[in-house]
Write a structure and sequence with these properties.
single chain, about 525 residues, alpha+beta, Multidrug efflux transporter AcrB transmembrane fold, Gyrase A, domain 2, elongated
């Protein structure tokens, strides 16, 4: 016991000092410039959750009906392409989306078998209905509709999470609520309007060819060619009309990167496709030199340049009357991906920091009361050794705060409850060790032998009891959400630090005392 390894002494002292150093920023005011700018002290603080520091809470509705409609429009374009195959075109009329189906009528009943063969296995989840050999309907099944709705919500949650993560918000809560709603809680957010704009933008970027076979005047009067649509530029550019072919030549989901940059002093967005998208974009530009390409974002034509030459590098730029902030936000949402359906803010709540201040103060009071009660108990019960355990308990708290700061974990009200619980549990290991030492002393062992036996025999029990609690905390973190995770984090960290302080730090105090005093009896 007295021959405590030098490496163990150094390791224990270093970890204890690092705990004090990395916990120190949390004990100074936020605006303290000495702490913020000093080069030798870390600057990371604990992140406070929405219930402690305030922030925004948004309840979003996913426009699943729009996702269904877009799926039907996509199938409609596929039907048009299949019926127009070169060499054996099938004549039809009245191709349209009708409720949850795509309907059309053949001009010649003799083409019925050909149309049936081309459309029978066209799309999973659609059933082909034929009447009079000329009236065709592709009807979306209820199972396919339900799956598309759920998929739209799940994809929206993932995209929202990516966009929020890009803004740097620490530990947001993003979860499904009901069948088509998403709850988003953003602790400490300073610009909720910007977050609402980022989340509300669908960011569906596609590349279409302009249809220059008809004039704008004809299109606006309702004389649109089949397979084309009338779109406009953004409002800040004057709502200029364009006739755009419905066929998506290159989809925005092929983008792998989008970054803000400048060209001739103007902010623009540069983008890059994946290998498949780059090849398709190169073929498109090579086959349409001299024609105009429409870059369509959320059904608005942000740019319609004329293709001067083939673009084979798989990259390009988006220009427009953008501000620097708009370019940054557009790059962000393009990198995160397009929403499968629009989001609507149903409810917005702002949590003021006053609630957080009250909660933190209440947590401090509870922690102090718990700490004092534990210290009094252990000192009264075990004397000098209890005092050593109490000092180790203070280091234990500093280690918890330090790890929360280093890991940038979020402290919530349940997290404070976990810390208070840890204070109560922290002395368990010390109680086991000190009771074992008292038992060895009663059995007639010398002080050194009693201490050595007490630590050695209590070690297995301490590991078993703490390990089972740690497993429970890990399961809470794995399967829990929001507040439950906050509780699990602080509980897990507290278990690890309490084992360290009990088995290493308190033991170091006792070893130093033994070497200096060399007592004949133990004050326990």
């Amino acid at each position: 016991m007295v021959n405590y390894p030098r490496w163990a002494i150094i390791t224990t002292v270093v970890i204890a000092l690092l705990g004090l150093i990395y916990a120190s920023p949390n004990f100074f005011p936020q605006a303290d410039e000495a702490v913020e700018t000093s080069g030798f002290l870390p600057s990371n603080r604990m992140n406070l959750g929405l219930d402690l520091q305030g922030g925004s809470s948004l309840l979003l509705s996913v426009g699943v009906d729009t996702a269904i409609r877009e799926t039907l429009e996509s199938v409609e374009s596929t039907v048009r392409r299949e019926l127009r195959q070169r060499g054996s075109r099938v004549g039809y009329s009245g191709l349209r989306v009708e409720g949850k189906a795509i309907a059309f009528r053949l001009r010649d009943a003799a083409d019925s078998d050909t149309a049936r063969d081309r459309l029978r296995n066209l799309e999973d989840g659609f059933e082909l209905e034929i009447s009079d050999d000329v009236n065709f309907r592709l009807v979306m099944s209820e199972e396919a509709e339900t799956a598309r709705r759920q998929s739209a919500v799940e994809q929206s949650i993932e995209i929202v999470r990516r966009r929020v993560d890009e803004t740097g918000v620490a530990e947001p809560v993003i979860q499904q609520q009901g069948q088509d709603r998403i709850l988003v809680q953003l602790p400490g957010i300073k610009d909720p309007e910007r977050i609402k704009r980022l989340l509300g933008q669908t960011a569906k970027l596609n590349f279409h060819m302009l249809d220059e076979s008809v004039s704008i005047q004809e299109a606006e009067s309702g004389n649109l060619p089949a397979g084309s649509m009338l779109l406009y530029s953004p409002e800040e550019e004057g709502r200029i009309p364009y006739v755009v072919r419905r066929t998506v030549e290159v989809a925005g989901d092929r983008l792998v990167d989008a970054q803000p940059t400048f060209q001739d002093g103007q902010p623009i967005v540069s983008f890059r496709f994946d290998a498949s998208g780059g090849r398709r974009f190169g073929e498109l530009t090579a086959n349409n030199v001299g024609n105009r390409l429409a870059i369509v974002l959320d059904r608005e034509v942000v740019s319609a340049p004329r293709i001067q030459t083939a673009i084979l590098g798989g990259s390009g730029i988006i220009t427009g009357r953008f501000t620097v902030q708009q370019v940054n936000d557009l790059s962000l949402v393009l990198r995160a991906g397009a929403l499968p359906a629009p989001l609507t803010v149903l409810e917005e709540r702002t949590v003021g920091p006053g609630l957080g201040a009250d909660s933190i103060e209440a947590g401090k009071i509870a922690s102090i009361i718990g700490l004092v009660a534990v210290v009094v108990f252990i000192v009264v019960s075990y004397g000098l050794f209890g005092l050593m355990a109490a000092v180790a308990l203070l280091f234990n708290l500093s280690l918890i705060v330090a790890l929360l700061s280093v890991l940038q974990a979020t402290l919530t009200l349940p997290g404070i409850a976990g810390i208070v619980l840890t204070i109560g549990m922290a002395v368990d290991a010390n109680v086991l060790i000190l009771e074992r030492i008292k038992e060895e002393v009663r059995n007639g062992r010398t002080p050194i032998s009693a201490i050595d036996a007490g630590y050695r025999r209590a070690f297995t029990t301490i590991i078993d009891s703490n390990l089972t609690t740690l497993i429970a905390a890990i399961l809470l973190f794995q399967f829990g959400t929001g507040p439950i995770k906050g509780f699990a984090v602080t509980l897990s960290i507290g278990i690890i630090t309490s084992m360290f302080t009990a088995m290493m730090l308190t033991r170091l105090f006792i070893v130093v005392w033994l070497r200096r005093r060399r007592p004949q009896t133990l004050p326990i």
